[in-house]
Amino acid sequence: MNFSEKLIVDDNALFKIKNEIQAEFSHGLNYHGTDVSMIPTFVYGLPDGTECGTYLSLDLGGTNMRVCEVNLSGDRNFSISQEKYKITEDLKTGEFTELFSYMAKSIGHFISTKSQSKQGQRIPLGFTFSFPVDQSAINSGKLIGFTKGFNAKNAVGKDVVETLQDCLNKQNIPVDVVALVNDTVGTLLAHSYQSGGAKIGAIFGTGTNGAYLEDLTEIKKLDDEAKNPKAGSKMVVNTEWGNVDNARSVLPITEWDDIVDSASINPRRQSFEKLISGMYLGEILRRLLVDLHAKQEFLSNTSTLPEAFNTQYGLDTALMSDSLRDSDGETTHTKQVLGALGVSAENVRELDAQLFRDASQLIGLRAARFSACALAAVIESEASENAAGDINIGLDGSVIEFFPRFEQSIRDALNVILGNQAEKRIKIGLAKDGSGVGAALCALQAIKQGVAKK
């Protein structure tokens, strides 16, 4: 069997994977501690584009922290001003309270230099905190542990909303932290506002995840207080679908996927994500090409591959996108990519360039078809509930935005799984900046739910 046959996902596999995802969704809605967590967000509704007002958002998740002010005009449009603030290594590894004190100080600086709000007026803020938390309300969540190079001391078990609010109060900064939000949930909220109502939000970028609005009666693990009908009959659920099929019961795993997984920091975890997301697609291609070189099927006229091919994550997924700018039979851009990877021009044969492009295309197509399975798993429940309405989906992330034909390949696979009639009902749009605009909209939703006063 050649490499292309191993990367093809046939139509029968799509249905099996979709069914497995639905089964794991159901398990996660019923029980705590499951692989696919189906995390309740305590967001009981979605914006429809008519909302107005000014809200702040704070996005913490990497080297930089971002403070935004979002002005909603009520006609699905908004304006945004923002400022980035550097998070030093000392802040990442020092006392937890020092990190949050700096965050509060940065918010204060933003208000004094960028904000259009009246001086002294209290402003609601949505907090995008991209680390594991045990969330118990829309405005409450205790830190489970830091990731991404953060390791602040005395942090685990602390309520991140309460801590930030305390720091703001000590510095007399007129801001109320009213909502804690995940970036995928933010994507759903942002697209719902900009499109006039949405059903599903998903990210296909460095990682992958999805969120959707679920009936409270289906979230069996929720306690009775969270099912208070006064709040609403539905709640946004953060699926954490990247963790689907860690048991590998249905996913067609190749030997190259196995190598990527074994060498990762979390073997046999995030199995679905490792087949889809931008962090891993280039690495799958690299491992495949190294294998083909050993078999003298790729760059066979060179005894050793350039350093990039022998370095973990040395082949960025963006280079696959660059290669796919070539149409069928062309290799101009692909040869440039190989040159950027250190292959000398005299060693690049037409056959090698075509193989690189074909492998990129197949790995990307496979990822898109897997992605469609996750979307279809949610869409089917929405379709059965409202057979006449549109299914409006907001997508964000570098893969969906920049990888050639990724969105179209998702659409094609959805037509296979759901039938051609689904194409008329499924509306897909890019939802930009869920961590900024979406967090501000989550603050608005918190006010609607009575968590805070505007």
TrEMBL record:
Domain Hexokinase N-terminal: 3-193
Cellular component, GO, one term: cytosol
Source organism (scientific name): Wallemia ichthyophaga (strain EXF-994 / CBS 113033)
One Gene Ontology term of the molecular function aspect: D-glucose binding
PANTHER family: GLUCOKINASE-1-RELATED, HEXOKINASE
Keyword annotations of the record: ATP-binding, Glycolysis, Kinase, Nucleotide-binding, Transferase
Protein name from the UniProt record: Phosphotransferase
EC number: 2.7.1.-
InterPro entries noted in UniProt: ATPase_NBD, Hexokinase, Hexokinase_C, Hexokinase_N
Listed transmembrane segments: none
Alphabetical list of Pfam families matching this protein: Hexokinase_1, Hexokinase_2
